[in-house]
Specification:
The complex is a heterodimer. By secondary structure, chain A is mostly helical. Chain A has 15 helices and four strands. Classes of the chains: A mainly alpha, B alpha+beta.
């Protein structure tokens, strides 16, 4: 048996030159120190993305992207198809956990200043991945065509429509018309299963390639110290796999005890239900839009908030270029404080959304 | 102009023109075609007796929702049901006699004016006419 395996490997290796890849993995070293725990979140995000692809492909078998049948097809998956409830719940729960993991990965990278030269592009591609996965969440949210997702889409697309200069055009492009309709569902389905996967795959390849080429960043405070290293394969991969297993158990447990709900079918001519809110990762923006007055000086409050979020996002994306101290391998407490303020803002606003609904 | 420079310019230009010739139809294809929407100016919203005092009904006005309110005093009023903030559909709140948007807590009075919350503009008001048993709602000129 062992001989067959060896012969098979030799056959494949002669054609694909795999040995070089194995040698690279074996000789590649990963730093290990008290903060290396945070390294594993990138691998977990990649693992969860794989689950999303697998479960998404399976859901395509029964899902119908039409406003007459979308909700019914989800009900069919949840109630008639064997293990349909599990596949859909894994897809929905994993989507949410994945965004949470991406936030943890992003903030840990920020606080460890791992974005500093020469890893600026790794940071920027990571930032785009967060945006892409939030877009995955937003587009996927509408697909079951339930009332919460319907109104969340109306609000979300109207936010896009409020952007200066391109807003009207962008809203029309996203909606496929002037209101949330069949054209919108078709487009969201197209975004969700074709355009976004293509974009995400491309950016993930660049991001992972950069991580492989540049290696893991070592925190600034350890740069002059001798840091212990472990081999990428098998030591780091084993630890990574442990993280994947734990997260898989977590996904399994939540899916069994809290299967993802189907909701009530959307009715475009019904009143918006009370207590409506978007997915948790949009709630900090949602609550900001709730709290901001209708006008601030000469500008509409809503437009001001959207512009502020856009400016904040651009600042965040360009952090490696703006943090000149970190680029020179020096501590940059100002950026640490900026990160703390941003994190606190997101956490406080998210908690407020769920604890003070009548705000 | 040098021959090499000319050839570079010629092939570079041709490449860009070819790229544009490919991209233009793709971009036009993904942008939705403009579709003429039937403009509805008047609609039969309800029948007399459909609405008890201090209740409301959402009805279809063209392609958007509108709301007909029978106030506590028995006055019939109609509004666009699309919130001027971020386009959620408003409800009639009987306890306060106001229009309320649950998305971002915008509130409008029975004249359509913003009472509280983030909506930047008043909500559109419509004309209500009662013809026999039918209640008609029309847009203001």
């Amino acid at each position: 048996m062992k001989k067959i395996g060896q012969n098979l490997f030799t056959y494949v290796d002669e054609r694909f030159k795999l040995q070089g890849l194995f040698d690279f993995a074996k000789h590649k070293k990963v730093p290990e120190h008290e903060d290396s725990f945070w390294y594993y979140f990138g691998g977990i995000a990649l693992f969860l993305s794989g689950i999303q692809v697998a479960t998404g492909i399976m859901l395509l078998l029964y899902y119908t992207p039409s406003i007459e049948a979308a909700h019914e097809s989800i009900q069919f998956i949840m109630s008639q198809v064997k293990f349909g409830w599990l596949i859909r719940s894994v897809h929905s729960w994993t989507a949410n956990i994945l965004i949470g993991i991406l936030f943890v990965h992003m903030f840990s990278t920020f606080f460890l200043k791992a974005y500093r030269k020469p890893r600026e592009l790794t940071w920027i591609t990571g930032f785009f991945l967060l945006i892409l996965f939030m877009a995955f969440g937003f587009s996927g949210y509408l697909l079951p065509w339930n009332e919460l997702s319907y109104f969340a889409t109306r609000v979300g697309t109207d936010i896009a429509g409020s952007l200066p200069f391109i807003g009207k055009w962008l809203k029309g492009f996203i909606l496929g018309g002037t209101s949330v309709s069949q054209a919108t569902l078709s487009r969201f389905f197209w975004f969700h299963v074709a355009l976004l996967p293509l974009a995400a795959f491309t950016v993930i390849v660049i991001h992972v390639l950069l991580v492989q080429i540049l290696g893991m960043s070592v925190p600034l405070r350890l740069k002059d110290k001798k840091v212990k290293e472990i081999s990428f394969f098998p030591d780091f991969i084993y630890k990574d796999a442990l993280g994947w297993t734990l997260i898989l158990v977590l996904v399994g447990v939540v899916c069994v005890f809290l299967p993802w709900e189907v909701g009530k079918k959307a009715d475009p001519f019904a009143a918006t239900p009370l207590g409506i809110k978007p997915e948790w990762y949009f709630t900090f923006m949602f609550t900001t839009l709730k709290l901001i007055p209708s006008h601030v000086l000469f500008i509409e409050g809503e437009q001001l908030a959207i512009l502020a979020f856009m400016a904040g996002g651009i600042f965040w994306m360009l952090a490696p270029f703006l943090d000149r101290k970190a680029a020179r391998e020096r501590p940059s407490p100002v950026f640490t404080w900026i990160g703390i303020i941003v994190l606190l803002y997101i956490v406080v606003m998210t908690v407020v959304t769920y604890t003070v609904p009548k705000l | 102009m040098e021959r090499r420079r000319f050839i570079n310019f010629f092939f570079g230009g041709s490449f860009l023109a070819t790229l544009a010739a490919f991209l233009y139809p793709v971009i036009r294809y993904v942008l939705p075609p403009k579709q003429a929407e039937a403009v509805q100016k008047k609609v039969a919203a309800a029948k007399m007796g459909d609405l008890a005092p201090n209740t409301a009904k959402i009805f279809k006005f063209g392609s958007v929702p509108a709301i007909l309110v029978n106030t506590q005093e028995g006055q019939l009023l109609a509004f666009s049901a699309v919130c001027t903030h971020l386009t959620c559909t408003v409800n009639y709140e009987a306890a306060t006699g106001t229009l309320f948007c649950p998305c971002h807590n915008g509130r409008f009075d029975m004249a359509g004016n913003v009472i509280s919350g983030p909506p930047p503009r008043p909500i559109e008001t419509y004309i209500v006419e009662v013809v026999g048993e039918d209640i008609f709602v029309s847009k203001k000129a």
